[in-house]
Amino acid sequence: MAKQLEGEASDFGRRLVEIRKARGITQVELAERIGTTQSFVSKYERGDLRLHGDLIVKLAAVLSVSTDELLGFKGKEPSVHPTVKDRRLWRRITSIDKLSKRDRAALVRTIDAFLSKAG
């Protein structure tokens, strides 16, 4: 478990370095913008320090990226949508994209018919 956390911290650190450099921001500039020191930024980039929510939000805002992208979730399918509480329903919804265009259209017509009756 500890090795997994270390790996996640170093993965985050690599992403942070990559995004920071792509934005043309130095460690000192980033530190000033998030209210910390260059030493702390360096420790986060090396994976020596664990992240906390407030820092993740600040970093994402300064670097103009989503927190998902910063944490490495970009492109990954969420297990549940914030407004869809039923996991089974959410899995089915995300599977719709795998259907053929014709099948998707038929499914949408069926859903629309049910929703118009509920209206």
Entry keywords:
119 residues, 434 Repressor (Amino-terminal Domain), mainly alpha
Q: In CATH, what is the class of the largest domain? A: Mainly Alpha
> Helical content, roughly?
55-70%
Architecture per CATH nomenclature, i.e. the level-2 architecture of the largest domain: Orthogonal Bundle
Radius of gyration, in Å, reads 21 Å
Explain the layout of strands and helices:
Elements lengths: L1 H21 L4 H8 L3 H9 L6 H11 L3 H5 L15 H9 L5 H18 L1
Helix pairs in contact: 2-3
Please describe what this structure looks like.
The chain is mainly alpha-helical and 119 residues long. It has two domains: 2-71, lambda repressor-like DNA-binding domains (434 Repressor (Amino-terminal Domain)), CATH 1.10.260.40; 87-118. It is 68% helix and 0% strand. It has seven helices and no strands. The protein has helices spanning 2-22, 27-34, 38-46, 53-63, 67-71, 87-95, 101-118. Helix 2 (27-34) crosses helix 3. It is elongated. Mean pLDDT is 82; it is low at 1-5.
Briefly say what this structure is.
The chain is mainly α. It is built from seven helices and no strands.
